[in-house]
Design goal:
Blueprint lengths: L1 H23 L16 H10 L8 H6 L2 H12 L9 H23 L26 E3 L2 E3 L1 H13 L28 H13 L6 E2 L4 E3 L2 H4 L10 H9 L10 E2 L11
Parallel strand pairs: 4-5
Antiparallel strand pairs: 1-2, 3-4
Helix pairs in contact: 2-4, 4-5, 5-6
Length: 262
């Protein structure tokens, strides 16, 4: 009897390290999986079905029929970029599309709303409790907010100022939401188109030889638009207009009303 008890205790002791190891193991972080670049055709289908040429979204219909959007979000969650198989353009396209797709998801979660800023608490403190700080993006074990995607990934890792013309905040003053997904093989063309369209949209920017009224985006993120060229040189290249550097710009009020089809 004593011998049996001794063997039993010995087996328990030998099993404890293995038990601790098993309990300490976490599921594989999708950021570490060796995923390959994905196609964004499903996102293009969502955009073509629910977004019109003016960039306005039929949120009411999307809320009723979210199946394609949800399937695309699941595809994103299961295939996060890695350095082994994804190049920079593939990563950038992924994160821009993810930002825009989850913005639509955020809106339909709370729809009907008059604007994205109506989501959340009445008093909003940046990086604490604004709609952009809700951690609605589930990537395996990691949960991210729209703010994290914009500032910690898109702005920080890519240093591509034209992302500000590509990501959409579901508001009237935002750059227009495209009706096709961003793709690595067309990304340069798409970003250039977005920059040109945004800068030449008189409801967003008013540019002439003696008047410069810019979107508040250029005020909020002014440093992002300075690289090997000056602020004015970049805007001249993107807009196709000569922007006089000696004219002091003003900034238009930002309309946060929902970019909704009426």
């Amino acid at each position: 009897m004593k011998r049996s008890l001794h063997i039993y205790l010995l087996l328990i002791c030998q099993s404890i390290p293995l038990l601790i190891l098993l309990l300490s193991c976490r599921p594989i972080d999708p950021q570490q999986k060796e995923t390959h670049p994905i196609q964004h055709d499903l996102w293009s289908e969502v955009l073509k079905e629910f977004v019109n040429d003016a960039g306005e979204v039929n949120y009411a219909a999307l809320k009723i029929q979210p199946q394609k959007l949800l399937a695309y979000l699941e595809l994103l969650a299961k295939n996060t970029p890695n350095d082994q198989y994804w190049n920079s353009s593939e990563k950038l396209a992924y994160w821009i599309n993810l930002y825009n797709a989850f913005t639509l998801k955020l809106i339909i979660d709370y729809y009907p709303v008059k604007g994205i800023k109506d989501i959340g608490t009445a008093i909003q403190i940046p990086f604490i409790n604004t709609p952009w700080d809700i951690k609605l993006i589930n990537l395996g074990n990691e949960k991210l907010s729209l703010n994290q995607v914009e500032h910690e990934i898109l702005r920080s890792q890519f240093k591509e100022p034209r992302i500000h013309f590509a990501i959409n905040c579901a508001s009237i003053s935002c750059p227009k939401l495209r009706r096709d997904a961003y793709r690595a093989d067309r990304l340069e063309q798409q970003l250039s188109e977005q920059a040109y369209l945004f800068l030449n949209d008189p409801s967003k920017n008013k540019i002439s030889s003696d008047t410069l009224q810019f979107s508040k985006i250029f005020d909020w993120f002014s440093k992002d638009f300075i690289n090997d060229k000056t602020f004015y040189e970049n805007l001249s290249v993107w807009s196709g207009k000569i922007i006089p550097p000696d004219v002091t710009p003003t900034f238009l009020d930002y309309n946060w009303s929902l970019n909704e089809q009426l």
